[in-house]
């Protein structure tokens, strides 16, 4: 309960800060030196936050869609031939550092939001795919048998049984992807993507800790809120199904 | 079935790669260059034909996995050697400014044979010992190709040649960052995990704090460490003499350490909690003391889960250590960000490729270790 | 009527079900019994084509099932399995409504059918409709599983070890209920079990299988008194077959005119119960409710093969 109140409070503080950053200047003043500005004003923090969230949302949506479709494809019909390959690629792919993926996207995509989106999408594919795969293949034999025995066609089994039952795991994959993307997107600002990383990097370049802190805090609070939001959703669905 | 569907996919990717330019020739390292296909090189046509044949052959029928593996490895090596060939052929004699860098065709071909390799290994289901052997062979092969000088004309290797000493230092720094933070996290995290295993009251708060620590974006955590250590160096007598400073390796090391704590602590707890109560009761019933139960029963049984934490942390830290390059902490990130600043993509590759290779090898090696540990405790 | 003709299933050249033929009359309850690996489950699963037969035919009311698309066939045949296989993400009502919904029944008819079935299985519709499967006890989940199988009023119900996951007390009650409901609805039922007692208690006909072959297909009394092979005899066990035989017949069937002392026994009680009562109360004859008596001699005569 206290956790939920704290979360709500953090969310409110975040909203207030984004709406009127200058009101928080006294809080950040101690972290500046030589009368440097306490609040980043080059671009509005609100618009950076929205752009940051939009990049993450697009990347997560794309990874979820593609990851889920791939997971469905490799678990039925001719696609099953690709299952061992898909498992290996996911395991190996997840060892690729997100920063390196981002750096490698630049030669192909140039600077800007593009390479960040692509890197986040590619990196986000793996957790979603892995979890969707686990969800789609993890049904108990009894449920599968009952569904088949009652005359559900393969397509009906997919839509009515397999997909709904793998929803909690899929959400867990999306949660992982969203949280990783939120953090990695900040690094996108090194390749000129419009994210909150801009604030942090400005702070690093001008040795202004106040900037580093406010950029980091906004992303951190967003990450906690998104993490908790997904978890609450997962818990509700799991609870309905009587899973732990 | 007459066709192997994965084989068809690899062939499609590979032939697309053959159609696209293999390399890019640039008069100097900054300007954009022109793409040159494999077929336009001397010896290029037979090489392209060989690769094409390999790709088509593997999509026909059902080859035994071992044969597929051989085909994938030979294709992989051929593609890399073609790159070296292109570089040495295209670079004018004595010219040190011109650059020949891998282009889309090269990466696609590499991807095609890489996937073929992964597929073959997956189907082969090699034993544990065999997989160690394969890892060693792959490392040996890469080392041999690099040492042979065949690739010396390629842009990345030229960047390397011009900063050989620096590369060595940054590699050391990168390894120090990744392994140093891991070691520190194990030293602190395992006792902490054991402590909260025995004092359940503390589980919520400890894991909660570590969880929140993990959500702070890496870039910000690295940044915050700079003033913190600057302050420590300035106000704590003797700290500066020990090498503590606001810039350099210390802030990066501590940031990585903080990120590593959650996996180590939570996996220690999970590993210990995963030991069945009956096993613990049996150990106590046999007359073991609590420390003996911990040392002789719980820890050995929790080992695979602990090793999984080591894998997570090591792979994660090898990647995150790149960010140290942004705050002057050293490591391969130095090349990545220098390259991004100068839009010199060869320099970016010089930082990114070793990082990926390092993470890959660490991930595979630890996977093998985890499997070995699992065999010890079924 | 279900006719199974020369049905076989091969796996890697080995026959798991080997040339089995049998007929189940409409409204009968047939039990397939055998040890694990006997082929009984495979035989059952070939009836709704969860397993494709290697050769042979299954005819339902004269129609070869191979001529129907498998999923349409299965919607006509009820199917209940051990551990019930309820869909964990769907409520009790939604689980029961699965096949009617697939068949496109109107909403109100489905709702009415769900309530009707819940009432039939003694589950209060108002309380159970909205419950999720994990909120049910083992016995309740099993009943919902059978209700789901019966939802679309199938002419044929297949059950694979439906009571396997229940503890003995609940199992006895569930068996009684099933027998009663099956009689009431007139559904043809084929049930797989490894438990000979269950087979004798429930079956109109028992098919004993071993090694993929059908050893004997007969009424329970014939199986007990005249086992076709030594294997069948071992499976029924020789120690208490006299008692099992007695449990097949009812007191009302052998009541004879006469007078006897003491409390009366119900005509629906089994002869086994009557014998127990005779021995326990030290009487040679018991009065039957509604007239007549049953004597120890008559019971003794019934406990021997003829």
UniProtKB/TrEMBL annotation, chain A:
<feature type="transmembrane region" description="Helical">
    <location>
        <begin position="199"/>
        <end position="226"/>
    </location>
</feature>
<protein>
    <submittedName>
        <fullName>ABC transporter permease</fullName>
    </submittedName>
</protein>
<feature type="transmembrane region" description="Helical">
    <location>
        <begin position="48"/>
        <end position="73"/>
    </location>
</feature>
<dbReference type="Pfam" id="PF00528">
    <property type="entry name" value="BPD_transp_1"/>
</dbReference>
<keyword id="KW-0812">Transmembrane</keyword>
<comment type="similarity">
    <text>Belongs to the binding-protein-dependent transport system permease family.</text>
</comment>
<keyword id="KW-0472">Membrane</keyword>
<keyword id="KW-1133">Transmembrane helix</keyword>
<keyword id="KW-0813">Transport</keyword>
<dbReference type="InterPro" id="IPR035906">
    <property type="entry name" value="MetI-like_sf"/>
</dbReference>
<feature type="transmembrane region" description="Helical">
    <location>
        <begin position="165"/>
        <end position="187"/>
    </location>
</feature>
<dbReference type="InterPro" id="IPR000515">
    <property type="entry name" value="MetI-like"/>
</dbReference>
<feature type="domain" description="ABC transmembrane type-1">
    <location>
        <begin position="49"/>
        <end position="230"/>
    </location>
</feature>
<dbReference type="InterPro" id="IPR051204">
    <property type="entry name" value="ABC_transp_perm/SBD"/>
</dbReference>
Automatic annotation (TrEMBL), chain C:
<dbReference type="Pfam" id="PF00005">
    <property type="entry name" value="ABC_tran"/>
</dbReference>
<keyword id="KW-0547">Nucleotide-binding</keyword>
<keyword id="KW-0067">ATP-binding</keyword>
<dbReference type="GO" id="GO:0005524">
    <property type="term" value="F:ATP binding"/>
</dbReference>
<comment type="similarity">
    <text>Belongs to the ABC transporter superfamily.</text>
</comment>
<dbReference type="InterPro" id="IPR027417">
    <property type="entry name" value="P-loop_NTPase"/>
</dbReference>
<dbReference type="InterPro" id="IPR003593">
    <property type="entry name" value="AAA+_ATPase"/>
</dbReference>
<keyword id="KW-0813">Transport</keyword>
<dbReference type="InterPro" id="IPR017871">
    <property type="entry name" value="ABC_transporter-like_CS"/>
</dbReference>
<dbReference type="InterPro" id="IPR003439">
    <property type="entry name" value="ABC_transporter-like_ATP-bd"/>
</dbReference>
<protein>
    <submittedName>
        <fullName>ABC transporter ATP-binding protein</fullName>
    </submittedName>
</protein>
<feature type="domain" description="ABC transporter">
    <location>
        <begin position="2"/>
        <end position="236"/>
    </location>
</feature>
């Amino acid at each position: 309960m206290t956790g939920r109140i704290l979360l709500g409070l953090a969310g409110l503080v975040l909203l207030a800060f984004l709406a009127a950053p200058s009101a928080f200047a006294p809080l950040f003043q101690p972290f500046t030196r030589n009368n440097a500005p306490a609040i980043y004003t080059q671009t509005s923090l609100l618009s950076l936050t929205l752009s940051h969230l939009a990049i993450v949302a697009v990347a997560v949506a794309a990874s979820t869609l593609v990851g889920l479709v791939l997971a469905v494809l490799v678990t039925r019909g001719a696609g099953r031939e690709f299952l061992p390959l898909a498992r290996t690629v996911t395991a190996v792919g997840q060892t690729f550092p997100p920063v390196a993926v981002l750096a490698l996207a630049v030669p192909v995509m140039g600077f800007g939001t593009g390479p960040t989106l692509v890197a986040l999408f590619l990196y986000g594919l793996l957790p979603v795919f892995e979890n969707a795969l686990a969800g789609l293949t993890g049904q108990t034999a009894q449920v599968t048998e009952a569904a088949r025995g009652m005359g559900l066609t393969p397509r009906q089994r997919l839509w009515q049984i397999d997909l709904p039952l793998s929803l909690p795991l899929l959400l867990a994959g999306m949660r992982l992807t969203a949280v990783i993307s939120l953090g990695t997107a900040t690094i996108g600002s090194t390749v000129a993507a419009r994210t909150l990383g801009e604030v942090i990097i400005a702070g690093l370049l001008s040795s202004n800790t106040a900037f580093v802190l406010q950029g980091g805090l906004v992303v951190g609070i967003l990450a906690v809120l998104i993490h908790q939001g997904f978890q609450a959703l997962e818990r509700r669905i799991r609870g309905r199904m009587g899973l732990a | 079935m007459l066709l192997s569907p994965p084989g068809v996919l690899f062939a499609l990717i590979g032939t697309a790669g053959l159609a696209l330019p293999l390399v890019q020739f640039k008069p100097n390292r900054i300007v954009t260059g022109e793409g040159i296909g494999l077929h336009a090189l001397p010896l290029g046509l037979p090489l392209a034909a060989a690769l094409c044949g390999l790709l088509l052959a593997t999509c026909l029928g059902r080859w035994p996995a071992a044969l597929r593996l051989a085909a994938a490895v030979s294709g992989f090596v051929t593609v890399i050697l073609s790159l070296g060939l292109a570089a040495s052929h295209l670079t004018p004699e004595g010219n040190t400014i011109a650059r020949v860098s891998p282009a889309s065709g090269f990466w696609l071909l590499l991807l095609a044979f890489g996937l073929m390799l992964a597929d073959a290994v997956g189907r082969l289901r090699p034993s544990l010992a065999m997989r160690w052997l394969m890892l060693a062979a792959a490392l040996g092969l890469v080392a041999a190709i690099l040492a042979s000088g065949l690739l010396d004309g390629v842009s990345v290797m030229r960047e390397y040649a011009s900063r050989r000493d620096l590369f060595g230092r940054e590699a050391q720094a990168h390894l120090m960052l990744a392994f140093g933070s891991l070691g520190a996290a194990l030293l602190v995290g395992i006792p902490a995990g054991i402590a909260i295993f025995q004092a359940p009251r503390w589980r919520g708060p400890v894991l909660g704090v570590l969880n929140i620590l993990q959500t702070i974006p890496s870039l910000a955590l690295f940044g915050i460490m700079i003033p913190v250590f600057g302050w420590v160096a300035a106000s704590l007598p003797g700290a500066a003499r020990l090498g503590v400073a606001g810039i350099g390796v210390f802030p990066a090391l501590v940031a990585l350490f903080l990120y590593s704590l959650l996996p180590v602590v939570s996996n220690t707890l999970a590993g210990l909690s995963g030991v069945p109560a009956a096993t613990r009761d049996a150990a106590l019933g046999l007359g073991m003391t609590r420390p003996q139960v911990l040392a002789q029963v719980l820890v050995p049984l929790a080992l695979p889960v602990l090793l999984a934490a080591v894998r997570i942390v090591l792979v994660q830290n090898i990647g995150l250590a790149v960010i140290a390059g942004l705050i002057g902490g050293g490591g391969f990130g130095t090349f990545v960000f220098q390259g991004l600043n100068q839009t010199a993509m060869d320099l970016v590759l010089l930082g990114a490729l070793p990082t990926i290779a390092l993470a890959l090898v660490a991930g595979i090696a630890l996977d093998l270790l985890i499997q070995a540990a699992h065999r010890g405790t079924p | 009527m279900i006719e199974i003709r020369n049905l076989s299933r091969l796996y890697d050249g080995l026959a798991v079900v080997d040339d089995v033929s049998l007929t189940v009359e409409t409204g009968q309850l047939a039990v397939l019994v055998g040890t694990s690996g006997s082929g009984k489950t495979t035989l059952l699963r070939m009836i709704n084509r969860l397993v494709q037969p290697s050769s042979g035919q299954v005819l339902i009311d004269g129609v070869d099932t191979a001529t129907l698309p498998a999923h349409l066939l299965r919607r006509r045949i009820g199917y209940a399995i051990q551990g019930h296989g309820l869909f964990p993400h769907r409520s009790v009502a939604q689980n029961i409504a699965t096949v009617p919904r697939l068949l496109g029944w109107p909403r109100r008819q489905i709702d009415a059918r769900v309530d009707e079935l819940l009432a039939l299985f003694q589950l209060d519709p108002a309380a159970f409709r909205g419950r999720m499967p994990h909120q049910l006890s083992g016995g309740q989940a099993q009943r919902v599983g059978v209700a789901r199988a019966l939802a679309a009023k199938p002419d044929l119900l297949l059950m694979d070890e439906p009571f396997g996951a229940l503890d003995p007390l609940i199992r006895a009650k569930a068996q009684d209920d099933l027998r009663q409901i099956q009689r009431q609805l007139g559904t043809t039922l084929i049930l797989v079990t490894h438990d000979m007692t269950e087979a004798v208690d429930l079956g109109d006909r028992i098919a004993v299988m071993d090694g993929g072959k059908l050893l004997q297909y007969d009424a329970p009394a014939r199986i007990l008194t005249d086992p076709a092979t030594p294997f069948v005899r071992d499976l029924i066990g020789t120690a208490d077959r006299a008692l099992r035989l007695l449990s097949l017949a009812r007191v009302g069937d052998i009541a004879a005119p006469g007078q006897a002392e003491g409390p009366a026994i119900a005509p629906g009680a089994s002869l086994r119960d009557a014998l127990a009562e005779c021995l326990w109360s030290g009487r040679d004859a018991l009065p039957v409710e509604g007239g007549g008596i049953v004597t120890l001699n008559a019971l003794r005569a019934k406990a021997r093969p003829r």
